[in-house]
């Protein structure tokens, strides 16, 4: 059910209750006309909202708590004769009125100009369907013989449920291979594993929700995410209230450990801790551990992409932005290749670091991991709100080879290293609205026609590239 259908439904539901209330008033006015003034002007309650909406609630899993505030705007004390959850004990909703749980309450005194809280939760039963369902109820408030209603509405969704106790395989790990169906969402508690020599395909349109600290874990196996433009695979936390739209750290991320060459295309990975974590290479030779195309990785508490301990990553037409530490961090990873990517800071936390951090070693205090790094960055914009947005920490262990060509880079002091060629230093790329994660560009951007021709012939939205192309993931 899309948002327009939901909004239409709420309006109709409100209209139904309005007609019911008006009819009730008409009957009361006919039978007790001498009390009409009292009924309409005294003892009426006011509410912080006339509809309590839950959107979307996964079946079998309880919702978060919504609150309703009840006001007495009269100067004198009013007695609320009855408060009743109309569905009674059979209702999927649960209410708590001023600290008391139940389905019906009576004789509640509310002093003049005062208020009290009512809290609502809901748990929905599976319906065996693939489409969202709407489940409604209402709460009736009777004051001075007059009934007022607050509507309860929840959009419920059945899902595929993945759960693993992380204490070990013997505890019943959730192992995955083949193709995940995309007819309803997937919810991960703990971990969903792709085990050694197994292959999992996630098709276009799949929605994946992860609970706190959960992750999709690929161990010596292969993961292929196959989204398409405007039918992306979406990976995010399982808190679906609007207050969580931009809250980072809601789950861990997608974790590749010695994975066979895997691919992620047209995915949106947001609001985790580390969007894509690559650890060690799975013996893939010249091929990368993970190949990313046309993918948005944004708003993670630590890193957008972490390449660690020999992993290799290729990224094309990707947007990696607004992550708490680095958008991309290479810690003793052995290689990376970025082409036509937008890599940006703009996070708001105290731990903000340059958009790209590149190190050929990692020292954990007990031992040092080191790797010879080959890194290529072409037609990319590396920008943000710091003075410098790319940082190297190299220990000269072995031989590193870098090529950074036709890029726009923010750097407080432009580098004279020979591996930088055709660089535009410190020119504002004129993103449309980075605070709202919109990294498309205006016609006046220095990125326009500033790149060098490559094998990437379309941008992240499928728009043909000009020759020369614009720098970054978006073509004006």
What is the chains' assembly state? single chain
Q: Termini distance?
A: 33 Å
**Total individual domains:** 2
Helix percentage range: under 10%
CATH architecture of the largest domain: 3 Solenoid
Describe, in plain words, how this protein is organized in 3D:
This protein is mainly beta and 476 residues long. It has two domains: 3-156, Immunoglobulin-like, CATH 2.60.40.10; 159-441, Pectate Lyase C-like (3 Solenoid). It has an eleven-stranded parallel beta sheet with strand order 11-13-16-19-22-25-28-31-36-39-41, with no helix packed on it. The chain has a ten-stranded parallel beta sheet with strand order 12-15-18-21-24-27-30-35-38-40, with no helix packed on it. The longest helix has 29 residues, at 3-31.
Write the layout of secondary structure elements.
Layout: H1 3-31, H2 36-41, E1 46-47, E2 51-58, E3 66-71, E4 78-85, E5 93-97, E6 100-102, E7 104-110, E8 115-122, E9 133-143, E10 146-157, E11 160-163, E12 178-179, E13 186-189, E14 191-194, E15 199-203, E16 207-210, E17 215-219, E18 222-226, E19 233-237, E20 253-257, E21 262-265, E22 267-270, E23 274-279, E24 290-293, E25 296-298, E26 303-308, E27 312-316, E28 319-321, E29 326-331, E30 335-339, E31 342-344, E32 356-359, E33 361-363, E34 368-370, E35 374-378, E36 381-383, E37 390-393, E38 401-405, E39 408-409, E40 420-421, E41 424-425, E42 431-433, E43 438-441
């Amino acid at each position: 059910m899309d948002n327009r259908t939901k909004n239409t439904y709420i309006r109709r539901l409100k209209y139904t209750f309005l007609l019911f209330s008006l009819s009730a008033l008409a009957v009361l006015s006919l039978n007790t006309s001498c009390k009409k003034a009292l009924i309409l002007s005294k003892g009426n309650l006011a509410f912080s909202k006339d509809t309590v909406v839950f959107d979307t609630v996964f079946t079998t899993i309880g919702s978060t708590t919504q609150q309703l505030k009840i006001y007495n705007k009269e100067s004198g004390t009013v007695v609320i004769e009855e408060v009743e959850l109309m569905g009674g004990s059979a209702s999927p909703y649960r209410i708590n009125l001023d600290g008391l749980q139940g389905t019906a309450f009576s004789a509640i005194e509310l002093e003049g100009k005062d208020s009290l809280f009512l809290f609502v939760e809901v748990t929905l039963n599976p319906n065996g369907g693939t489409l969202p369902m709407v489940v409604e109820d209402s709460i009736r408030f009777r004051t001075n013989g007059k009934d007022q209603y607050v509507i309860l509405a929840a959009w419920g969704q059945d899902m595929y449920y993945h759960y693993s106790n992380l204490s070990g395989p013997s505890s019943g790990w959730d192992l995955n291979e083949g193709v995940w169906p995309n007819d309803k969402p997937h919810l991960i508690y703990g971990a969903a594993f792709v085990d050694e020599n197994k292959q999992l395909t996630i098709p276009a349109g799949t929605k994946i929700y992860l609970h706190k600290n959960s992750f999709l874990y690929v161990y010596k196996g292969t993961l292929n995410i196959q989204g398409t433009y405007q039918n992306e695979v979406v990976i995010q936390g399982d808190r679906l209230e609007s207050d969580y739209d931009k809250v980072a750290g809601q789950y861990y991320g997608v974790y590749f450990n010695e994975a066979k060459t895997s691919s992620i295309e047209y995915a949106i990975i947001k609001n985790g801790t580390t969007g894509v974590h690559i650890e060690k290479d799975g013996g893939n030779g010249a091929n990368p551990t993970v190949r990313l195309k046309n993918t948005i990785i944004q708003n993670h508490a630590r890193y957008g992409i972490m390449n660690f301990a020999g992993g290799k990553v290729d990224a094309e037409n990707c947007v990696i932005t607004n992550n708490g530490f680095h958008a991309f961090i290479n810690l003793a990873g052995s290689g990376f290749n970025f082409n036509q990517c937008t890599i940006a800071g703009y996070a708001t936390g105290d731990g903000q670091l340059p958009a790209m951090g590149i190190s050929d070693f990692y020292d954990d205090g007990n031992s040092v991991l080191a790797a010879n790094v080959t890194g290529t960055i072409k037609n990319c914009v590396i920008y943000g709100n710091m003075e410098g947005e790319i940082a190297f920490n190299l220990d000269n262990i072995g031989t590193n080879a870098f090529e950074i060509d036709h890029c726009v880079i923010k750097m407080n002091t432009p580098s004279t290293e020979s591996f930088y060629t055709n660089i535009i230093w410190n020119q504002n790329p004129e993103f449309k609205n980075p605070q709202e994660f919109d990294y498309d560009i205006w016609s006046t951007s220095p990125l326009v026609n500033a790149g060098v021709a490559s094998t990437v012939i379309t941008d992240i939205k499928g728009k043909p590239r000009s020759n020369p192309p614009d720098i970054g993931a978006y073509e004006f």
